[in-house]
Amino acid sequence: MIYCDYQATTPLAPEAREAMLPWLDGPEGTGFGNPHSPHRFGRQAAAAVELARDRVAALFPPGGRVIFTGSATEAINLALRGSHPPGDARPVAVSAIEHAAVLDTARALRCPVEILPVDREGLVAPACGLPDAVRLVAVMQVNNEIGTIQPVDVLARRAKELGALFLCDAVQGAGKLAPPAEADMIAVSAHKLYGPKGIGALWIRDGVVLEPLLTGGGQEQGLRSGTLSPALCAGFGVAARLSTELLESDARHVEKLWARVRSLLPEWELNGSADSRWHGNLNIRREGLDVARLMSDLRTIAFSAGSACASGSGRPSHVLSALGLSARQAKSSIRLGFGRYTTLDEIEMVAESLNAAAERQDMR
């Protein structure tokens, strides 16, 4: 099986797995302690959590703090709901191609939501219109479906000029690109940068005040209640450290894979920008393609017919629709995702299989 769905989740780095194992020990070991307990076992676990926090913090700009969450979705909810005073009717602005965690949560705030359009390349215009008295602007760094890289720092500066906060979903960009330096809040997820599932983080700029989403013991600096998992934190921390250390070599590897696969799929149309894009994301379409049949024919390749978060809905991707693609074009699109552990041989086999399966459909 060849794995080409890195936007849905990345393989767990072996180093991250090794870092997790000591904190899963039973009674014979010392890693099972509650990191919020005052005894020795608890203090050891707490030290592991804080080391992980420091490593994750290196993914972000200086001048902020890291709050561990159960996922990036929870982090986004904490940012949007926690910064929304009850009864505040000021609008928020979000891009048309945000993840559902942003779009659905913004719509649940009971305030006006301005949708910022994208062009045919999937980019928000730096000079796009922002509503008067806007309270918060949310634009993702890298789109999870088409990989476009947004001008988030320019947009964040414009938001600040209007007195608004800027939230950036950096799930697909963290550990791959420089962090959005001007953002006020940044959400990330461990399992999108070779860490474990079940843990994410929200970076909050110093001076930004939020109300907690989960109340109780207030374990995470008063903003998130619940016992942290030292194992998940340790795995996240090591994955973050590796992403920082391997940033350049990972990027070079991805560029080689991108150039090769693009050369091998000349009959497929690219969705989104070719240049303002993370090249580990290849979203392509072919006229008249039956994607369901394609996925059935290529069961030894793991790839996506769109965002994994919306798969099975039967609806065309809201991201591809925002580019101006018809429902037919959107439904003839696939997404290939590759990264650190993808080999050149694998990407060549994938391209060969895709072309052969598509050509078989053309002959029917």
Low-confidence stretches: none
Gap from first CA to last CA: 27 Å
Element-level helix/strand string: EHHEHEHEEHEEEHHEEHEHHEH
CATH fold-level topology of the largest domain: Aspartate Aminotransferase, domain 2
Strand proportion = 5-15%
Structure described in brief:
Helices cover 34% and strands 13% of the residues.
Question: Care to describe what's here?
Answer:
It is a single chain. Helix content is 34%, strand content 13%. Helix 3 (72-82) runs parallel beside helix 4 (100-107). A seven-stranded mixed sheet has the order 2-8-7-6-5-3-4, with helices on both faces. Strands 9-10-12 form a three-stranded antiparallel sheet, with no helix packed on it. The chain has a two-stranded parallel ribbon with strand order 1-11. The model has no long low-confidence stretch (mean pLDDT 95). The chain folds into two domains: 2-8 and 247-363, Aspartate Aminotransferase, domain 1, CATH 3.90.1150; 14-245, Aspartate Aminotransferase, domain 2. It is globular. The protein is α/β, with parallel strands linked by helices and 364 residues long.
